[in-house]
Each structure stands twice: as structure tokens, then as C-alpha cells.
Amino acid sequence: MPGSEHQPRLPAILTVDDDPAVSRAVARDLRRHYGERYRIIRAESGADAVEALKELKLRGDTVAVLVADYRMPQMSGIEFLEQAMEFFPLARRVLLTAYADTHAAIDAINVVDLDHYLLKPWDPPEEKLYPVIDGLLEEWRAVGDRGMPYTKVIGHRYNDRSWEVRQFLARNEYSFRSVNADEPKGRQLLEAAGLDDSQLPVVITEKGEKLVAPTDGELATLLGLSTSPSLEMYDLAVIGGGPAGLAAAVYGASEGLKTVLIEKSSTGGQAGRSSKIENYLGFPFGISGAELTTSARRQAEKFGAEVITTQEAGRLKTGGVGAAHSIVLNDDTTIGARAVILATGVDYRQLRITGCWDDPDDPACNYIGRGVYYGASVSDNSECAGEDVYIVGGANSAGQAAMFMSQTAKTVTMLIRGPSLEAGMSQYLVDRVKRTENIIVRTCTEVIDTVADGDRLTSLVLSDRQTGETETVSCDRMCCFIGATPRTDWLEEAGIARDDHDFILSGPDVSKVSGWMLDRPPHHLETSVPGVFVAGDVRSDSAKRVAAAVGEGSMAVMLVHRYLAET
Ligand SMILES: Cc1cc2nc3c(=O)[nH]c(=O)nc-3n(C[C@H](O)[C@H](O)[C@H](O)COP(=O)(O)OP(=O)(O)OC[C@H]3O[C@@H](n4cnc5c(N)ncnc54)[C@H](O)[C@@H]3O)c2cc1C
């Protein structure tokens, strides 16, 4: 086997490049950083590399990452990666390209489901190579590291708490295996741990530690996350750890504010649920929501922000102009802050049918972002040109999405559980929807199942709620708008002004409602309470996009500075 050393059971990182100097350089850099934990195998042709993979397969070894040069004479990097997928489909795939070949790398996303392309030269590796490979290894360990010890979560398939425990770990990118208690392996593990299935869910860590029916707080501790604030007083308290809150924490802390972020569950928010965010700037290959937001949490912590998870802000007591605000947490801890940013987002419900939700028991079967979309349609309607689109829901957001997409889609079918559109949608929109030729409205209809080709949604199974008849229809894209509720009920006491749907008003909109007491107008993202700002989806009239939430979170910090300078 070219360039390999015999270190049984270590997973492999395989690199192939026809230029011996480049091949040696990649292997050298990889070995320097990963040599103790991975076998670095190098080959100088696609054919040699395929042979090496066959040998690894025969020995029962695992391959974590494949790094292939794009331009190789007999077998291109893409052809090699395509063949490699037959042997090690879970290995992460990286294409090594020259700047001029970037377009080919981007095309390769569709052919070999490429995870990353690396531009040559990759110097310094600390900046350009290792962060990429680290991220890929982390992803690979989460699903494809069969040869190493791993944490097990034993639970019942359809048990809420088992589901929540798995969700919590997954959203924090903690790698684990899910074991069902009613399967032989689950029973064996429970017996070995001296437990029974009345104590589920049970987490057994790599080191053999047992967590019986753990709370979120206990899980957070297992993951090394903070669950209680260290100070009584901060410059800035950010409530909510989705993209808006994380951005606020990064900018607040990096700009010298003593910053605390309070998140009731795990950081990531709705974005953390997205299997692939494809429209976030700077990620041409898309990025998983968990990866994006876990990196953001680390970045905030790096700058000194305290990120507190599993603590819900239950009350906000405002202190008057210039005075500190108090936030009471669910364990009755009270913290003070000179300024507050509310970034509590909204809740979109997910359809609990095949591939349409983040099923921890079957993470591979997830079409979210691959034909199934929540709370948003398309950012540019050319994306759905010629498609048969289905929209689930009958509120204004669904109507607006239908109108927008009907401009380019072949057909847009709205699926409404109730008997009429009028029940949930403004009349002007109902009229427009009805006037649009390629929008079809199906009332008393719900989606009960999906059909996919690989991991891409292709059809829906619909059921007529009146007759019970079912029908399978071909579908390119299903956008669900089945409820987005702002999380603002806890702000009652603070008197934060909200719109008719409970989203938080800010800036110029605040001036329109009574209660603004200062001579100056409210700052752009300032709520009706001076010094309390809002960012992201929870803001009235927000864009409901990751980039918008991140932008608002960052901008709110600038306005916090302005407010603090005035007081
Ligand atoms: C499945 C899915 C896919 C999506 N895909 C895309 C996409 O591809 N591109 C895109 O641009 N947008 C996408 N979106 C929309 C995007 O995720 C949201 O616009 C974005 O997450 C909003 O960020 P946020 O920080 O405002 O709120 P959220 O992400 O909702 O985060 C709010 C956070 O606040 C916490 N919280 C709430 N109340 C409290 C409290 N009282 N105390 C403490 N914490 C609290 C919540 O637990 C949550 O973590 C998607 C949404 C979903 C659901």
C-alpha cells in the first residue's frame, strides 16, 4: 500500500495526487497534525488509491477523509472520489484544486457530494488545511466512526424525552450512537448497566459513565457547557442563542462588553435544525446549521462571552433609563445588565412525516433543505423555475410564498387542512391567489407521507380529510408554513410593545405606539423600553433568514454602544 504504515485500527486519511512533490507535501502536513490519531495514506494515482481503499475495506479498516487532486491524468479527482464512495460512502470528500479549477470543484458537489475544495497552495496549514479537516473529522465521527468507542443513548424510539436527549447532543455536535431499548443490543446494555427500561433514556459515555434520565443541565455539563452565570452584573445580556443571539454575543464580547448569552436549550436556534444552509454568505457548499452555530458559540466564547445554556429567561424587569435591567432565570438566579438584546426567535413546527423532521433515529432520512423547507420559500424565485411546488399552510406567509414562487414555478399547489383559504389569509391575498392561474388550492387536504429518490424529495402522499382517499403526487419542493410563533409571552411584565402577532416592535415602529418617554427617538433596533434591543426573527417584520438574523445581532451591538454612551 503506497506510503502506508501499519497501525491497525486507526482510521485512515487518504490523499492522492499525481505530482509526487505535492503528494508528499499533503501527506507530510496531515501526518504532522493527525498522525497520532489517524493513519495517513498517500497515493500518486487514482488507480493506486482505489487499490489502497480495497485493501482497507478487506481488512475492515475505516476511512475518515479522502483528499484527491482534481487534475490527474488517468483518473481525475472527481472520478476517483466517485469510485471511493462505493467502498467508503461515509468518508468525507475533499478536492484539491488550482484556483482556475474552482468551477469544476463547484460542479463536483452534484457528482460526488463533495464536502469541501481546497485551493493549492494550502499554506499556512494551520489556517487553510487543519480547520477544514478538523471540521470534516468532527462530522465524520458523528456518523461514520465505527471503529472507535462512542457514547450511547439508549431510549425508546417514539419517546419524547429520548428524542430530546438525542436532539440536544446532536445540536451540540456531540457524537453518539442511538440504541433502541427494545432491541437486543439495547437490552444487553441496560442489563450490563444494572438498569431497566423504566429509567430511560440512559446515556452511557465513552468512559462508561452512566446518566440516567438526564436533564438538559446534566447533558450540558457532560458536554462541558456552562449552565450558570458567573457574575451578577454584565454590560450586555443577550437572550436567545440562535444566529441573532450568537452574532450579538460575538460582537458584544469582541468589542469589549462584558457579555452573557442566555439560551433555554442548546445554542443554534432554528438554524441549528437545518441540515444544510445553502444561502449563507461564504459557504458555496452549504453548511449544516449545527456546524455553523456550534462554531459561532465557540467564537463567542473565544472572545470571552459567557454562553449559558439550559437556562430560560423567565422575567425581564426594566430599571428605567440608565439603570440596569434584571433578568430572572428559570432557576431563580437574577442577573443584571446595562443593556439587553432580545433574540428569542420563533417556533416553526415540523411535519412529523418521513424525512420532513430531524428524526434522531434516522438522521440520514432527512429531506430538509433537499426538497423540504420550513418557514421560508426561496430567496430568488428563479430557484424554483419550472418546478411543481407544494405549499403547506394557509396563512399569509404561505400565500405570499405562493405568489412569489408562482412567477417562475410550473405549478404551485397550496395544501390547506381546513375548508377554505379565507379562514387564515387576508382577503386581498386570497383574491390574488385565486386570480393566479398556476396556483391550485386544495382544501381539506394534508400530507401524510413522502417519497424520495436517494435523499431528495420527489413525491408526496396526500390524504383527503373528508373522504379519506389518498393520492401520490410528484413534487419538486414542499415549503411548510405551519405556524411560527414568536417567543415573547415572558416580556409582558416589562411592557415591551409588540405587534398584533406578538412580534416585538422596534425603532420607528415604536414611535407609533404610546409609551416612548425619551426626547430622542428610539434607535433602530431599540424596543419600547430604552436599552432593550431586539434582533432576528422575533422582531416585527423581520426577514426570517439566517443572514438577516446575524446582521441584526451584530448591528444591535453597535446600537447598544450608542445607548451606553448616552447614559
Ligand atoms: C428547518 C429550518 C431551515 C431553515 N433554513 C434556512 C436557510 O437555509 N436559510 C436561511 O436563511 N434561513 C433558514 N431558516 C430560517 C432561520 O433558521 C431563522 O431565520 C434564524 O434561525 C433566526 O434566528 P434567530 O436567532 O432570530 O432565532 P432562532 O434561530 O429561533 O433562535 C432563538 C433562540 O432563542 C431561544 N430562546 C427562546 N426563548 C428564550 C428564553 N426565554 N430564554 C432563553 N432562550 C430563549 C431558543 O431556544 C432559540 O435557540 C430555516 C429555519 C428552519 C426552521
Automatic annotation (TrEMBL):
InterPro entries: CheY-like_superfamily (IPR011006), FAD/NAD-bd_sf (IPR036188), FAD/NAD-binding_dom (IPR023753), Ferredoxin-NADP_redctase_2 (IPR050097), Sig_transdc_resp-reg_receiver (IPR001789)
Protein's UniProt keywords contain Lipid metabolism: no
Highest taxon, organism lineage: Bacteria
Residues recorded with modification 4-aspartylphosphate: 69
Catalysed reaction equations from the record: [thioredoxin]-dithiol + NADP(+) = [thioredoxin]-disulfide + NADPH + H(+)
Record-given protein name: FAD-dependent oxidoreductase
Keywords: Flavoprotein, Oxidoreductase, Phosphoprotein
Gene3D superfamilies the record matches: 3.40.50.2300, FAD/NAD(P)-binding domain (3.50.50.60)
Alphabetical list of PANTHER family matching this protein: THIOREDOXIN REDUCTASE 1-RELATED-RELATED
